[in-house]
Amino acid sequence: MSKSSPSCLAKSHDHERPHLESIREIVDSINEYMIGFLENVESWNSLKSLCTSMLNTIRNHKFFEFAEHSVLSNLYWGIESIEAAIQAKCPEERTDQLRNSERLLQVPALLDEHGITAGIQNQFLVCFSYFYLSAIKKLQNDEWQVALHYLQAMLVSPRLVRTEFAPEFCRDFFHLSNKSEIEDETSWDFGEDNTDEAIRQIARRYKHWLMYCQIMLHGEISGHYCRSRNTSSPDKESQDLSHVMKSSSDRSNSVKQGHCLHNYHKKLMQYEGHPPDLQGNRIEGTANEPNSNDIQEFQYYSNALKHFDQVPKVNIQNANLDNCTSIRRLQEILMEGESDSPTSVCSCENYDLEEDNSEAPCSTVHSMSTTTILPNASRHQMREEASEVNIDDLFSGRFLSSISDLDLRVLELGGKRSYIQWNSHLKRSSQKLVQHRATRTIQDPHSGENLNKFCVHYRKDSSAELIGDIEKVISKLCFSEGLAKFEEDYAGEVMTIYEMLKNKKGVKYSMLKDVMLDQLLTAISTSKEERVIRASVSILTTIISTNKSAIEDIKNKGLRLCDLAAALKRNVHEAAILIHMINPSPTEMKTLELLPALVEVVCSSNNYKEKPVTPLLTPPAASLMIIEVLVTAFDCATNNMHLAAINSPRVLRELLNFAGNNNPEGYVSLANVLVKCMQFDGQCRKLVAQCIPVAPFICLLRRDEKCAKFAALQFFHDLLRMPRSPAMNLLQKIRKEGGTKIMEVLVYCVRELPTDYQLLAANLLLQLDTLEDSSGKDSFKEEAIQIILKSVVSEVSSPTEQLSAFIFANLGGTYAWSGEPYTVAWLVKKAGLTSLCHRNMIRNFDWLDQNLKDAVIDSWSSKIGKHVIEVGKPVFYALEKGLRSKAKRVSRDSLTAVAWIGFEISKFPHSLRYSACEILLNGIEQFLHPGLEFEERLLACLCIYNYASGRGMQKLIHFSEGVRESLRRFSEVTWMADELHRVADYYLPNQSRISCVHTQIVEAHDSRSGAITSLIYYKGLLYSGHSDGSIKVWDIKQQSATIIWDLKEHKKAVTCFSLFEEGDSLLSGSSDQTIRVWQTLQRKPECTEVIAMEEPIRQLETYDQMIFVITQGHRMKVYDSSRTARDICKAKKVKSMGVVHGKIYVGCKDSSILELTIATKREREIKAPTKRWMMKKKPINAIVVYRDWLYSASSVIEGSKVKEWRTHHKPRISIAADKGRNVLLMGVVEDFIYINSSPSTSTLQIWLRGMQQKVGRISAGSKVTSLLTANDMVLCGTEKGLIKGWIPL
Question: Which residues does the UniProt record annotate as the domain Putative E3 ubiquitin-protein ligase LIN ARM-like (predicted)?
Fold first, then answer.
């Protein structure tokens, strides 16, 4: 015969079911071999020596873990315990020794067979363990487990079994067990590896079938094959052990073909005289009263001998009753299940299966058994006799009742479509049966008897079909081949059977149920085939969806989340549903690192778009629910880490596609995830606004569940934090999609939901109503405004108060796409703030954002402001209370609300405006004091200007002297402050007193980076450059300062900063000969450009797109927009400069000052140099341009108006430093000039600007290395890394 490949050898009959006789032959053959092995002392000692020599190899290893030594010890002492059990005389001692040995050998048996323990391959250790476990089971008289353990040893290491354990038996065994697979001796010669693989596949096949038959024949095999140590008596076990101890030299180790069937015949002859009981013990005196189980077994063997040549093969794909013994116990399950349910309407009147079963259970089983092995002709004849009543459309009444009486949710939730068809088919069949009975009764009064006879017969056939279906379903679970051919309806069938088994009590039901779960979990954890894993996961998901208690069963069975995670990562998307149903803790989810796989599942949501709707979650919906946990359940840092992983345009687009794919189960999670994404990175809001369909979220708002309403309201609230024009477009879309119902839903939310969500609903309701500009009874504006005002005056510093003030502050304003409120930026631009330096005193605003120029903001603010003011004085009383709130955010937001409402107040009667002024003015006044935030002082000026016009101007006379002085100082920033100061002086003339007392308001320290060499405000934050090249970013709030960023890009000292209007950027110059361009991206400063120089940099200034540089070599260069450099002022050595109004003023080392017109490139000397011998003593160390004055500092401080410098007039101000001193640093702000000179480098001198009078000094504590004046403040940095700030009060 030609040789065959091992693959063909293994697969030739993979899908055929072996004869039951073949399975019994395998069990008996292995048991016969094990008896011979135990009786043969030489074989025993030889194998033990082999194992011991293998264990002794650990002596060559100097280092190994204690746990490894423990595993090897368990194997050694497990073998010793078997010998002790064989030699023990007391039955109890033998039993204990065998139990101990089994417990010891289970430790190495559980090793990963692909690993290594103490230098020994686990494959050998596991194989030895299972082989000796097989011997233990033989000594315990558990013959079925003997075969299973032996086959497992063969699976682990076929080569070890066939070369060392049982070479002759292994060859004979395979030749005997499957002739079609190994026909002759030559078939073993195709190679060592191929032989091992062939043995492994054959052993795996028979092991699976043994496990399957063990369950399907549970109860039947317990008497003949499964006499476990718990059911065997000590005497019996003692006899078995004694028998083993007797040596039998003439006993053959090979197993002869046909031996097992011969044993069956011998056993059959024994049963004729003394049938055994369930325990295998002979019952004395009961020869004439045989046990029913023994009768069944006797009948089976009789029929097997008579029809041995005619026994048909059972095909697992067409499970039927051709082999009765394999489903006998399932018949009992069905009968007991039927006995618990009442008789249905279509059951026969004169037939009661329960009564028949109770009278003769053995005969019933026997009759069904014999029916299945009838010749084909007899079965065909029987079905022909029944065909006249349309047997295909009839169902047993009791069958219909038992299945239909299951919990309806089982049918609804698990494969809804298929089960609706199944139930409708059952109903149609039952109706036909009733109609047929009625027709036959009318036509033939004796037809009832005939119909009863038919129903008796058909009831058996229906039960048989159901049992066959159950056998088919469970058999698929036992083999990967069955799961690999998974069909959609199969999950529903398994779920139905599982539910049926769960509703029954008894060991056999629990055992079948456990087998189903075990097989599914094993497939998930061990299978390498994606189809098998997907089928197992889908079936488990279906079971859990209808039976939540199954989750605990599955957990108790050892379901590991890591297996589901691995399945998910292998593109088994259904695993996401199962993980969600199991509901692990957030920490467990985090450790599984599921996020990338979950994102891929969500990105595949289009694949589920066309699939029929089922009550089960889709994998994308389940994945979204898990993602929601990962981005919300942890601390801020962990949540943000997870959000960063999904914050990409591709993922966001797929999330938005999910909203359009009809997945309502995941909409709540989708809304929450999108909210978190927008809060993490506001730039994704633009993508969401452009692509998101609003209909799903409107549906969320309409749902009865509060969690759905909460998610929808939070989503709309965060999404609407966008520029005003696109926000209005979104509102129109919401109103169009939601219709009038959306307003009714929002009114319900305003009245019934918790306070925070009332506010969100009121905000959306007010904006939608304002968009329509509705009036009269249908207007909901007033109710919405009252809800917001009520919350503003709620509990102090509560989250509700803060949320309501935030909503009110930005209701009439706008946002950036990042979600930052830009109402303040819009207001201060309207107040006339244009200076780049002053704008950078305000944080978090991009002044180049084109949305600040949106004309829609003004019209929207006017429209909604009108509705707010119409409510009357309650609005102003609520805002006044908000202005005085102890919560800084609330008071600031209230001031913003007062400011934008003030633009509309002028259109209302003077009486209302005057009342508003009386109510609000005192609260606004507090924001004018020096030292407060720059934008707050600016908003306060704007509010007073709008509310105090007309009669309200007289209120200005009640301002304190400090407030009026603050208006005077602020008059440089905005014309409104200057005009208010003039009005106050008009009503109450007052000679201003200048306070020279400076109060320290801030101190910050960081000595790790050396001296602070430069300071500047950028985006409302203080930047400090250090001598080690680092840049620290400080957040200064009142008297505290916190480092929020530490930037280390420069290699040497950062010597200067400058604001760059192009791109709203910051420049830093360094001694490392580079200029770096910084921009704030996603709230973090990022270096966007590096400009290389040839020399270290001393000072930077910018104008338009040009950068002016002074180097350490006193050269001056200019860079244009293309970063092309050219030298200017080549004839001079430049020391300092200042840029203003398109001109640059340059201080030189020879004490001269040049004026350069940038547009025309014209140079002009406005101050001549000193005499040559004094040149080194009088360089211009600093130039400051303040308002229309120019100040220069060398050994003398001189100041005049710029025009007067051009005409060479004598300076108006001339302050001479002490003899021998030279001014190093100079700053000018309002009334004061601050000077740092040598040798008193640790102090700042304070001079009155208008009187040329020194009024004091302030100490920095160490050498001052940098100076900055801004917003009434003066700040300095020292060589010890200290920042100090003062303000005149």
Answer: 630-983
Would you call 699 helix, strand, or coil by DSSP?
helix
User: CA–CA separation, 55 vs 75, rounded Å?
Assistant: 9
Handedness of CA 479, 484, 490, 496 (dihedral sign): positive
- Give the position of tokens 């013990």: 281
Identify the DSSP state of 704.
Answer: S
Environment class of 1172 (CB within 10 Å of its CB; exposed 0-12, middle 13-18, buried 19+)? exposed
Q: Quick one: which of 1048, 1058, 1052, 1059 has its CA closest to 1074?
A: 1052
Please state, as a whole number, how many other Cβ atoms lie within 10 Å of the Cβ of residue 1178.
18
For residue 892, what pLDDT is reported? 93
Instruction: Tell me the C-alpha distance between 1154 and 1148, whole Å.
Output: 8
Angle CA 700–702–703, to nearest 5: 65
Distance of CA 1162 to the CA centre of its chain: 64
Three-state secondary-structure class, residue 494: helix
Length of the chain: 1289
- Helix (H) / strand (E) element for 675: namely helix 667-680
Half-sphere exposure of 1161 toward its Cβ, with a 13 Å CA cutoff?
8
Give me 53's structure tokens.
């020599």
In this predicted model, what pLDDT tens digit does every residue of 148-170 receive, in sequence order?
Answer: 888 888 888 888 888 888 887 77
Catalogue the long-range contacts made by 464-469 (C-beta closer than 8 Å, 24 or more residues apart). Answer: 464/320, 464/321, 464/331, 464/368, 464/371, 464/372, 465/320, 466/334, 466/399, 467/321, 467/327, 467/330, 467/331, 467/334, 468/319, 468/320, 468/321, 468/327, 469/319, 469/493
Least confident of 405-414, 948-957, 1156-1165: 405-414
Residue ranges of alpha helices (H) inside 1085-1163 are none
Q: Which amino acid is at 413?
A: L
Angle at 462 between CA 461 and CA 466, to 5 degrees: 115
Can you list the positions of beta strands (E) in 1187-1221?
1189-1193, 1196-1201, 1213-1216
Tokens of 1108: 């002016």
Please answer whether residues 706 and 699 qualify as being in contact, where contact means their C-beta atoms are separated by less than 8 angstroms.
no
Token pair 């004490």: residue: 1151
Pairing assessment for the beta strands 1213-1216 and 1222-1229 based on DSSP bridges: unpaired
The packing angle between helices 649-659 and 636-646, to 10°, is 90
Residue 806 in 3-state DSSP?
A: helix
Asked if 979 and 973 count as a contact pair (C-beta separation under 8 A), the reply is: no
What digits encode the pLDDT tens for the residues 1188-1243? 899 999 888 999 988 888 887 788 888 887 766 788 999 998 888 999 988 888 99
State how far the Cα of 524 lies from the Cα of 978, in Å rounded to an integer. 78
Helices (H), 503-594: 507-526, 530-546, 550-556, 561-569, 575-582, 586-592
CA 108, 114, 115, 118: dihedral to nearest 10 degrees? Answer: 60
Asked if 176 and 257 count as a contact pair (C-beta separation under 8 A), the reply is: yes
Report the alpha-carbon distance of residue 1110 to residue 843 in Å, rounded. 29
- Cα(701)–Cα(516) distance, rounded to whole angstroms? 42
**Cβ neighbours around 637 below 10 Å, total:** 7
Helix (H, G, I), strand (E, B) or coil at 119: coil
Query: What 3 state SS string does 637-658 have?
Result: HHHHHHHHHHCCHHHHHHHHHH
Least confident of 275-289, 654-668, 1263-1277: 275-289
Q: Give CA torsion, residues 178, 182, 183, 189, to 10 deg.
A: -160
Per the listing, tokens 């993490």 go with 680
**Rounded-to-integer distance, Cα 678 and Cα 691, Å:** 14
Residue 165: DSSP 8-state: I
